[in-house]
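User: Hi! I have a protein structure encoded as tokens and I'd like to know what sequence might fold into it. I'm fairly new to this, so please keep things simple.
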């Protein structure tokens, strides 16, 4: 830690506390905490906008501490193509088959986009003026996931009717209940694993981190999410391959060896049930649905789609060859149906420049962002995903975008140094 950061520890601790609280509340607002739709809407509307305003306020409080807003833009093309995607979504209101639905989804996506801008920019300002400080995005995100997962694990035992969802005719109980889709909750667990693993790299509270990870693994198993389990195994394997420390490699390899057989048998193959294996091969009916979308739905509006978050002229896409659906269960198919080939092209280039920016980042940041991307991209193949209906996968992807889109200056001017020095004894 630099002398500058050491002198401002009380200020940094308070900023870290507020950042954690804001991120926790923001992610929590994506959950359906009540079966009453009016209560749920009030939580989402008041909660998300309140958190957004709180983040903007915190950013300006950090600025008022004497830190100039001198973090410069970098990797502009990633942000530019994402903004173009949003602008095309806004323009699609003019041809959307349901403007109200398109508008609501678009504004929620933009709301999280603005939130992540100020959230990440606040951290980047700290990176610039307090080198070596302890405020880390992966720590904030990992602890956020742990707190939310802890609520579900406790709820699973205290109130199973609320926190467990019965599937396959009541034969299987999956963690999530009506509050959150089990696959989405599994993805959240994967993000938590990807972030908390970094505590082992820097030797930070390793015993407590191991306890956190065990609870998250337990919750992941309880969700029964195959895709999320695959994502976590890939995250562990990725870190095994990247680590230079033999102890970390050994620990992670042991974990994979112990986890993989149980995971494959109990979750992926569902104890050898032939019907479940057949279900797996069709990706629980998604493959026939995607085939019908391409063959029947896409030719109707191939260029610009049906409008932001719309996949047909009606509320549901219907076909004689598959089930009816309101969303595609694949984020790339979703953007293709929403905004046609024009939208899919924008999404492709946006992801390309995002990946390019990640690969050009410092080693720690690159490992962190790739780790976060693994579960949300896998989730994007079978659920809402990064270009789908509003979900925290979009929020995490936006955090990734802005994490590679700011560049701090290396040196402070004399005036900036004096301004910070005058605040060394101030309380935030």
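Assistant: Happy to help. Inverse folding works backwards from shape to sequence: for each of the 428 positions I chose a residue that suits the local structure. Here it is:
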């Amino acid at each position: 830690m630099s002398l500058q950061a050491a002198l401002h520890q009380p200020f940094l601790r308070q900023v870290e506390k507020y950042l954690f609280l804001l991120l926790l509340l923001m992610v929590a607002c994506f959950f359906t905490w009540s079966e009453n739709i009016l209560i749920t809407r009030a939580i989402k509307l008041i909660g998300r906008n309140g958190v957004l305003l709180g983040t903007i306020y915190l950013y300006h409080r950090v600025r008022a501490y004497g830190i100039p807003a001198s973090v410069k833009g970098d990797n502009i093309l990633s942000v530019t193509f994402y903004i173009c995607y949003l602008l095309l979504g806004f323009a699609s209101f003019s041809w959307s088959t349901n403007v109200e639905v398109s508008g609501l989804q678009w504004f929620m996506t933009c709301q999280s986009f603005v939130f992540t801008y100020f959230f990440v920019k606040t951290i980047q300002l700290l990176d610039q003026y307090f080198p070596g400080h302890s405020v880390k995005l992966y720590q904030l995100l990992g602890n956020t996931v742990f707190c939310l997962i802890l609520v579900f694990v406790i709820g699973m035992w205290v109130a199973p009717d609320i926190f467990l969802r019965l599937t396959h005719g009541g034969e299987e109980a999956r963690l999530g209940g009506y509050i959150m889709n089990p696959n989405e909750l599994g993805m959240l667990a994967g993000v938590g694993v990807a972030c908390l693993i970094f505590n082992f790299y820097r030797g930070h509270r390793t015993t407590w981190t191991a306890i956190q990870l065990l609870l998250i693994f337990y919750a992941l198993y309880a969700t029964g999410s195959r895709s999320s389990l695959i994502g976590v195994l890939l995250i562990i394997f990725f870190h095994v391959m990247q680590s230079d420390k033999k102890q970390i490699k050994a620990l992670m390899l042991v974990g994979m060896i112990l986890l993989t057989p149980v995971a494959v048998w109990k979750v992926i193959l569902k104890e050898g049930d032939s019907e479940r294996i057949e279900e797996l091969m069709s990706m629980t009916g998604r493959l026939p649905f995607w085939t019908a979308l391409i063959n029947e739905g896409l030719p109707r509006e191939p260029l610009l789609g049906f409008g932001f978050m719309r996949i047909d002229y009606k509320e549901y896409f219907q076909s004689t060859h598959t089930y009816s659906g309101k969303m595609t269960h694949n984020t790339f198919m979703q953007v293709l149906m929403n905004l046609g080939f024009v939208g899919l092209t924008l999404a492709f280039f946006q992801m390309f420049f995002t990946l390019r920016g990640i690969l050009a980042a410092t080693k720690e940041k690159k490992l962190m962002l790739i780790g976060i991307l693994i579960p949300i991209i896998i989730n994007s193949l079978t659920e809402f995903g990064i270009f789908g209906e509003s979900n925290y996968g979009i929020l995490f992807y936006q955090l990734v975008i802005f994490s590679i889109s700011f560049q701090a200056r290396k040196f402070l001017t004399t005036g900036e140094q004096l301004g910070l020095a005058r605040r060394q004894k101030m309380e935030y």
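A useful reference point when you look it over: The longest strand covers residues 164-167. Feel free to ask if any position seems puzzling.
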